[in-house]
Design brief:
Shape of chain A: elongated
Largest sheet of chain A: 11 strands, mixed
Helix content of chain A: 25-40%
CATH superfamily of the largest domain in chain A: Response regulator
Distance between the termini of chain A: 84 Å
Organism (chains A, B): Paracidobacterium acidisoli
CATH class of the largest domain in chain A: Alpha Beta
Oligomer: homodimer
Order of helices and strands of chain A: HHHHEHEHEHEEHEHEHEHEEHE
Number of strands of chain A: 11
InterPro entries (chains A, B): HTH_LacI, LacI/GalR-like_sensor, Lambda_DNA-bd_dom_sf, Peripla_BP_I
Radius of gyration of chain A: 27 Å
Number of domains of chain A: 3
Pfam families (chains A, B): LacI, Peripla_BP_3
Strand content of chain A: 15-25%
Protein name (chains A, B): LacI family transcriptional regulator
GO molecular function, one term (chains A, B): transcription cis-regulatory region binding
DNA sequence: TTGAAAGCGCTAACAA
DNA sequence: TTGTTAGCGCTTTCAA
């Protein structure tokens, strides 16, 4: 009952921050009013609000996020689960996500799974412990049962291409077909009839979709790639090299190869260059993603662009609407993201077809002229 | 006085997590004992501890980080301030830092400044708001007065190459000279006398140091590069291209060029390839960093390796010792990080010197043979 | 419209 | 060795 005098706890040496009481005192109002002002509750008197803001300004106060999170049950933290931070696609995605998240008052917790179950588990645990308000699963199709942990706690998620159906889960639906069709038709228009495809790891849903889109788009125009021209890579540069070597080992090889991502394409380019083959004269290559680097390889890569900014924005918005309007009846649960071809210099006529179907065609220069 | 019955607040629909009380109840002990058990306070009875762990296991309980942070004053969050997440050097650094941080119970908050003062300010504010326990400033020498915000709050910091002197600040001291000397002497041993250098942005301390090390190492062996051979880049691929073009515009150009980072070197390689010049036959190139990509450009890049893992580990340890042993009298405040040359295929004899000083030398193949 | 006060889940001081 | 309890800084209910 009686207030026993205790020595006040000082958590870490001298690290005492200003708190809401200091502001309240300075502005001669109650802490409740300060809280309401900060949270822009409309019923606060103009005059008082002004005093509060002035005090905040003068003291350079900002609220303690942990306390806020503790009491409100919202951490303003979003988990961002990616495959591999060293794949250049992801930093670009992170950048986009971070930008929009920060602008809207969220912080992000990045988890890099490296396609490893145990790491995935650690990432999920970290996110659970930090109480993320939502999770963007940008691993492109490794949907683990592990993710049930989020679902069972009613933590919203957003997936790419897939994801368990649930009221709190949305999906970014990437229209691979659009860009891939442009790519296939671009090759066909150049005269290619022998197309190959280096896929990503086929246990990933997204990689299956890309490959299927490629095959369908070929079929649409009556093309049927040989089995030996369909090789599985792993979305790394090294994997791309290995895959291209396998492709070239076939008795006949295609005159154009589409790759499931740009790193794969860059690996393919390396192998061709090592073997003394010229791109696009001897073989055309198309990538996928349009990472920054794509423009700077030799030759600059023709590729299907999937915008990181679009992806990041859609993922963020999907999560935000679930978090902030949890009882909205009809939230969109599918967010479309499109893809489109960017033509650069890794594609041209197939060998020996530079004058075909009556059109006079200009042969490309071997070396790009220096500007 | 009287306990008024209130409707218990339910923060977010159904998101009720288990708390320490549930565990206490389940294990038939007090919450204090649960807390002590979790925090491994040695005075807990073995028997009780066992019961507590069992309860934790059975309930799949884990503590609420925000509550812990609030009461302990420690967020177990470290800020990681980098320049540009899309520069491949940084994801590799982040990966290393994240790995060691997570293993030790810390989470990281990444701030990408993009060399922009305003963004830097935002990053600092975010870190302050989230109450980071320490900050690793890996921007390589943009020390802003803004960082005073941390110092004035007694938040430990670690810098690369520099940083304001203070008891809570440590510095990673990179021995640029070691690797750069190896590079310069490697070139000299091959017969090069005309060396150029493409620096990074010279307002960065780290870039000044690299350039100075290069010049000193040249001087050591009696070499003095022409002014026209010392060009400033900006550590991007595009910047490297521009810089190399400027270098080639000089009346005479050097026979070997060292670059302040690998992206710059890769840009330089591009330009040379566009101009039809062969590396290393016409010009040798050395990079700096040894990013993953360095091995995969054409030709594979000879470069000075600065280990991201070493850097990350040193930064983490520096912060951790300040955070966890704040009153340790003699903490190391300088952590050495070394660099060393990795020889690949972008360096060779200067043109026309392939048979020199009596040694018979093998001319390199133009194309690397395919394996 | 405002203020007092009850917690959010936890740690740690103190009492037993 | 264990339990009781006062806060950590904030939001929000309730009463005024």
């Amino acid at each position: 009952m009686s207030a026993v005098k205790r020595k006040p706890r000082q958590p870490v040496a001298g690290r005492k921050r200003l708190d809401i009481r200091d502001v309240a005192h300075h502005a001669r109002v109650s802490i409740a009013t300060v809280s309401r002002t900060i949270n822009r509750v409309p019923t606060v008197d103009q005059e008082l609000a002004k005093r509060v803001w002035k005090a905040i300004e003068e003291l350079n106060y900002f609220p303690n996020t942990q306390a806020r999170a503790l009491v409100s049950g919202r951490s303003h933290l979003m988990g961002l689960l990616i495959s591999e931070i060293t794949n250049p696609f992801f930093p670009e995605l992170i950048q986009g996500f971070e930008e929009i998240a920060v602008k809207n008052g969220y912080e992000i917790l990045i988890g890099s799974t490296s396609y490893d179950l145990e790491r995935m588990d650690t990432c999920i645990r970290r996110m659970l412990e930090r109480n993320v308000d939502g999770v963007a699963v940008m691993t492109f199709g490794i949907e683990e049962p592990l993710l049930e942990e989020f679902a069972s706690r009613n933590i919203p998620m957003v997936f790419v291409d897939s994801g368990p159906p649930s009221p709190l889960v949305s999906a970014l639906v990437v229209n691979y077909r659009h860009g891939i069709r442009e790519g296939v038709q671009h090759l066909a228009a150049l005269g290619h009839r022998h197309l190959g495809f280096i896929s990503g790891p086929l246990q990933q849903r997204s990689c299956q979709l890309r490959k299927a889109a490629f095959l369908d788009c070929c079929a649409e125009i009556g093309l049927k790639p040989l089995d030996a021209w369909l090789v599985e890579g792993d979305h790394t540069l090294e994997g791309g090299m290995r895959a291209m070597e396998r492709l070239l080992a076939a008795k006949e090889h295609p005159t154009a190869v589409m790759c499931s991502n740009d790193m794969t394409a860059i690996g393919a380019l390396r192998v061709l260059s090592h073997k003394g083959m010229n791109v696009p004269e001897d073989l055309s290559i198309i990538g996928f993603d349009d990472i920054h680097l794509a423009e700077f390889v030799h030759p600059p890569l023709t590729t299907v662009r999937m915008s990181r900014t679009d992806l990041a924005r859609a993922a963020f918005e999907a999560l935000r609407s679930h978090i902030e309007k949890p009882d909205q009846p009809a939230l969109p649960s599918r967010y479309p993201v499109t893809t489109r071809l960017t033509v650069r210099q890794s594609t041209s006529y197939p060998p020996g077809v530079s004058i075909s179907n009556g059109k006079r065609t200009v042969t490309r220069k071997r070396k790009t002229a220096a500007k």
